[in-house]
Amino acid sequence: MDGAVSDLNIIRKVFGSLTATEFDGLISLASMLSGCESVVVTLFGEPRLWRRTPVGISVEDYDGHTTLRDPAMSFYLDFPLKGAHGFIYGHLHFMNTCGHWVTSEIRLGLEAIVRLTVDRIEMRVDEARRELQVQLQNEKQNDFLNAVLENLSDGVVACNERGELTVFNRATRELHGLDSRSDIPPEQWASYYRLFDEDGKTPLNPSDIPLRRAFVEGSVKDMYLVIESVAGEKRTVNCGGRAIYDRDGQKAGAVVTMKDMTEIHKARAESESSLKMLQALIDTCPVGIAMYDLDARVRMWNPWKEKTFGWSKEEVLGGPLPHRDPRQREEVLWFIAKVLQTKSKVVGQGKRTTRDGKVIDVNLSMLPLFDDRNEICGFMDVVIDITDQKEREAKLLEANRALKAASVAKSEFLANMSHEIRTPLNGVIGMTEMVLASELTEEQRDQLQISHASANSLLAIISDILDFSKIEAGKLEIEKTDFDLPRMITEVKEGLALSAKHKNLKLISHFKGAPISEVMGDPVRIRQVLINLMSNAIKFSDNAEIEINVTVGEEHSGMSLVRFEVRDYGVGIPTDVLPRLFQAFSQADSSTTRRFGGTGLGLSICKRLVDLMKGQIGVESQVGSGSTFWFEIQLEHDKRKIKRVDHAACEPREARKNLRILLAEDNSVNQKVALSMLARLGYTADVVSNGSAAVEAVKRGEYDLILMDCQMPEMDGFEATRMIRSLAGPSQKTKVIALTANAMKGDRERCLEAGMDDYVAKPLALGSLQDVIRRQAS
Fold first, then answer.
1. What is the spatial distance between Cα 626 and Cα 617, in angstroms, rounded to a whole number?
2. Is 468 left (phi over 0), alpha (psi -120 to 50) or beta?
3. pLDDT score of 66
4. Which of 91, 189, 442, 717 could form a disulfide linkage to 708, CB 3.0–4.6 angstroms apart?
5. pTM score
6. What DSSP string runs through 11-28?
7. Exposure class string for 499-515: b at 16+ Cβ within 10 A, else e
8. pLDDT of residue 5
């Protein structure tokens, strides 16, 4: 059966609302048509409802079962009140005390009355159903509206015309710290809760309560107040509302919305505070700051700009950037265009002219300003006055020129001093060595050895001072050339063999680690460090031996870490002296200085040289047991040149004894020294006294080797070498060895650039001369 028809609740409601006279007309018509004394309508319900006819038995007297058992009743007819959907609403009863038959015509009439009765009932049921549907729809709509109000993020309160709260949604309860609406006394709401002015301290006047104002004044907008919850927490809200009117235009109440602005209010306060701080910073900043809109109009101009350029903020705001020189304004516009193109900061330097015509140097930075959509909305420039800085730079530049000139003068002075001192020393040391090689008495030998040692000491001091000066001036550079590592160690030993022999010392060398011979590095500086360390070892030892240990590490990326150790068994060094041992002009103690001499620069120079080679240097020592000085450097090598070290093969090769040698030297003493040393080594030489004579001698005959002094009258050694190299024929291959008393940076480079093959410094030492001849003529 249809749900609408079978809804018993609706039927019960309809039957419960029927009046006693609802069916009187139909019942009277049925009584007359049937001729029955009594006609009764019974409708089913809880409880049953009885309806009577105007004639016959009253409803109060009618009892269905009793009446039917009454002997007086001889006639009974029943018609069910059956609806269109088969539902039986009740019955129409016909009773009579005199039995009679109901004709078919009468029956049809009674059935028509039954249908009218059913139609009347169903009409009432349909009306009740429609009313119920409208009621349910209204209730559903009210529930939806209540749900909307409850779930709004903003607070909503409403009151009726008596001021009683009718709406108090969840957001409002949360602002007040309430759990449910039952906590709210509606009649006392306006005065019950603690409401304050926007300052959060002054209690709100009752007449200013937004709900009351909306009702009295008709509306309220953007009213800020502070609500203190039952827990004591204060929240800032923005209120707005209006009065509510009924259909007749009468005030029926008021409604107010409350938006929680606490965080926004706090952020706004913090933002205002930050803006004040930023403005204070900009105002006190010792640089010029200005801001522009997209049309390059000035929107901000700080006090530094006012003070420096002379235009006040009031004069420039809203207008173009002020400039006395139009080119400077064009420059700023160019900066702005560049910022628009790159959307990043643009920096530069330039000049600015103040209002009174003063020109200053400035650093200028132009930055883009972005809006919330990350689009450029303006620009900010930062100007720094660098006039004083420019003046200082100019002075520093001038001072630097003066320093460079002084440095050049110092270098020239040191070079000249080196040449002037080394030239006579060459004669002293060379001739002394020659005389020492001849037959002498013991007294003569002792005196000459003292003279020779003193000259060498003087030479060492000069060399140390020159090297230290070059390092301090940053004019000493590390080179990278191929050299034979084992052979270099052998040459160092040979060069110090005589000094070691005089003190009954034995020089021993050991190679450890990876087999390697050909390496790349600066052999001159490595040899200098080794000679210095070994000379110290010889100096501070009286007997026994000096060990040179070379350890080659494994190859990594074409490089090997090589460790050099010089071990002696001499006096040793106190522990408290070790930390300052590699400092300039520092020695173990003053007594050592007096006993052994020296400048105190040797170890300092060694450390500087090792540092330049990106290595490390150190010492381990114990008083009375000797010392071990070591340094480590990275050396590059070629795998194709790696071979196992054969000490026998590492001995220097002898040069040919029949060499044709030309000596070009203008100093007669140095000529004699060189010729004596060559004779000692088994060679003879032709002698010329200037560069021009050397060139003519080469033109006249072939020479295997030329010992060329660099500084000579008429034509120096550099120019003479260049002319010799320009000659056709075998002379282009003649080995030219530079002889020079200069020892400054660039001397070796100048020799090589001129076409010379090697370099030996004055004063000449027999070992050095022998080494260079071996290298170039073997």
1. 17
2. alpha
3. 53
4. 717
5. 0.38
6. HHHHHHH--TTTTHHHHH
7. bbeeeebebebebeebe
8. 43
Each residue of 53-86: pLDDT tens digit? 445 666 556 665 556 556 666 677 888 888 877 7
Q: CA-CA distance, 377 to 577, in Å (whole number)?
A: 69
| Calpha distance 319→325 (Å, rounded) | 16
Would you state the pLDDT for residue 597?
A: 47
The sign one gets for the Cα dihedral 324, 330, 333, 334 is negative
pLDDT for 219:
92
206 CB burial (10 A radius; 0-12, 13-18, 19+):
exposed
Between the alpha carbon of residue 421 and those of residues 339, 360, 425, 460, 718, the distances in Å are 65, 54, 6, 12, 21
d(CA 255, CA 240): 9
Asked if the model's pLDDT at residue 550 lies above 60, the reply is yes
* Cα separations in angstroms, 723 against 533, 728, 751, 756: 42, 10, 14, 12
Distances (CA, A) of 220 to 167, 213, 438, 535: 18, 7, 126, 103
d(CA 777, CA 660): 10
58 Cβ partners below 8 Å, 6+ apart? 52
Largest CA distance in the chain: 194
∠ CA 58-63-66, nearest 5°, is 125
Mean of pLDDT over the chain: 80
Extended strands (E) in 623-770: 626-637, 661-664, 685-688, 705-709, 735-740, 758-761
Element containing residue 605 per DSSP (H, E): helix 602-612
Two structure tokens written together for 320: 């173009």
Q: What is the DSSP letter of 492?
A: H
pLDDT at 206 over 60: yes
The helix-helix angle for 602-612 and 523-539 (nearest 10°) equals 150
| Distances from the Cα of 96 to the Cα of 55, 67, 68, 90, 462, angstroms | 12, 11, 10, 20, 164
Q: How far are the Cα atoms of 31, 55, 69, 73, 731 from residue 38, in angstroms, in the given order?
A: 7, 6, 15, 10, 166
